[in-house]
Every structure is written in structure tokens, then in C-alpha cells.
Design brief:
The protein is of the alpha/beta class. It is built from 11 helices and 8 strands. It has one domain: Metal-dependent hydrolases (TIM Barrel, Alpha-Beta Barrel). The chain is globular. The longest helix has 18 residues, at 103-120. Strands 1-2-3-4-5-6-7-8 form an 8-stranded parallel beta sheet. 46% of the residues lie in helices and 17% in strands. Helix 10 crosses helix 11 (241-256).
């Protein structure tokens, strides 16, 4: 059985393909999925789906970097985080690739999300792109203050950087999640990172509907395709697919307290 640790269900719900996506995931043995928040709408949908599909879909709520200049409602977010079906804060983090001009606002928002993760003792789902130094700096303070249990403080999702950044993230106690990018032809450096990450820190994700893995490139990504990510990780780690499924599912259950 596989757990997809990072899914954006918004588009599937909007275009009416959600029931089909859920059935295809079941056929692929992807029986549990984490629905990611990031905006008020995505947060509400995440909890709604968790309520409608108990034991299959688990919620997250937070504000991502695109909300940095939008004055998001933190009283609403606090209410969502109080719900036991909401398992993590996120996604949240920093992205200087597209919006470096809002770096100050992004850091403030990220810090506010981290403070809520500490308060509610729920792990944080971190996005970081071209912002390694600032991401680590903020996570250092968060990691020092974390009281929610070893191995549960958070995950750096859709990891794409080098071993040096992975080492810093791991030293702070976070897990690292790999997406379909690890299957791409030009991803040899990333595959080296997979070999470096300890087994008990590995997660798999699709980041659906984005980043469909090989051999599904060109299609809209969906949770069923996380099996291809697991296959790549199994090859790199010298393990069987079933072993990788069990390993990453166990890690996801630990992180999100499933």
C-alpha cells in the first residue's frame, strides 16, 4: 500500500474527475493521501475531503508564499488546525524563483505558519525554491522549539536541491519527500540525494496535478502515479517496490500521526 504525501485536489474537484481519480488511486494501491492546503479555499477543501473520506484522505491547512501580500485570515486557520482531521500546517514556505521581490513578506508569513505548527504540535509541510539559506535559517529556530515528538516536525516537499541542502534539512529533523522529478532524464544529481537520505526520512508524493513522473510525462499527474516515484526510489535504494511502499507509508504515518 502506498501513501501519497502531497496532493492538490482542487482541480480534480472543480472539473468533476475527483471520483475517477480516487478510484484509480485505489486500483494502484494508493489507499491514503494527504490533501494539501495553502489558501483559504484549499484549506477548507482539504478538511472537507478528510471528513468525507475518513481514513483515506487527511487534511492540511496553512498559507503558502503566494498569500504573503494578501493578508490571510489567521483566526480561520487556527480553527482549522484545531480539528484532529487536519494533520499538518501547510503547505507554506519560500519561493524566490518567481517572487523574490516579496521575500520579506514571505519570511514573515512562513514564520507565522511555523509558530502555529509549534502551538498545535503539528508538522509543517515546507515549500522552498531558490531560498535555501532563508529556509534553513527559519527552520533552525522552529526545530529548536519543536516539542511534538522526534521525526515529526515537518517535511521538505518536492525536494530538488543538492546533498548539501538535504544534509541541513535532515540535521534539523525534517523528512524529505521526492516527487516525479526524481524520474526525469536530467535528474541524476537528485537521484544521488535519494541515495544519501536515510530510509526513515523518505517520503513519496505526486504534487498532483503537477509533475507527472516518467513514464506518464505529458499527462496530468494524479495520486495513482506515485507508484512510479516509489519504483525509482526502490531502484536507487536497492530494495523491492513492496518494501519501499511499506517504508514510505510507515514514515508518512509517523510524520502525520495517521
Amino acid at each position: 500500500m502506498f501513501i501519497d504525501s502531497h496532493v492538490h485536489f482542487d482541480r480534480f474537484v472543480k472539473d468533476g474527475t475527483f471520483p475517477e481519480i480516487l478510484e484509480q488511486a485505489k486500483e494502484a494501491r494508493v489507499l491514503e493521501m494527504v490533501a494539501i492546503g495553502g489558501t483559504a479555499e484549499a484549506n477548507a477543501l482539504s478538511l472537507k475531503l478528510a471528513k468525507e473520506h475518513p481514513g483515506r484522505i487527511f487534511g492540511c491547512a496553512g498559507y503558502d508564499r503566494d498569500e504573503a501580500t494578501e493578508n490571510p485570515d489567521f483566526s480561520e486557520l487556527r480553527e482549522l488546525l484545531a480539528d484532529p482531521l487536519v494533520k499538518a500546517v501547510g503547505e507554506t514556505g519560500l519561493d524566490y524563483y518567481y517572487t523574490a521581490e516579496t521575500a520579506a513578506e514571505q519570511k514573515k508569513l512562513f514564520n507565522e505558519n511555523l509558530a502555529l505548527a509549534l502551538e498545535f504540535e503539528k508538522p509543517v509541510v515546507v515549500h522552498s525554491r531558490d531560498a535555501d539559506e532563508d529556509t534553513v535559517a527559519l527552520l533552525k529556530e522552529y526545530s529548536k522549539a519543536w516539542k511534538g515528538g522526534e521525526g515529526r516536525c515537518g517535511v521538505l516537499h518536492c525536494f530538488t536541491r543538492e546533498v548539501s541542502f538535504a544534509r541541513e534539512v535532515l540535521d534539523l529533523g525534517l523528512m524529505i519527500s521526492f516527487s516525479g522529478i526524481v524520474t526525469f532524464a536530467n535528474a541524476d544529481p537528485l537521484r544521488e540525494v535519494v541515495r544519501y537520505v536515510p530510509d526513515d526520512r523518505l517520503l513519496i508524493e505526486t504534487d498532483s496535478p503537477y509533475l507527472a513522473p516518467v513514464p506518464m510525462r505529458g499527462n496530468r499527474n494524479e495520486p495513482a502515479f506515485v507508484v512510479h516515484v516509489a519504483k525509482q526510489l526502490a531502484e536507487l535504494k536497492g530494495s523491492s517496490l513492496d518494501s519501499m511502499a511499506k517504508l514510505t507509508a510507515t514514515n508518512a504515518r509517523t510524520l502525520f500521526a495517521l
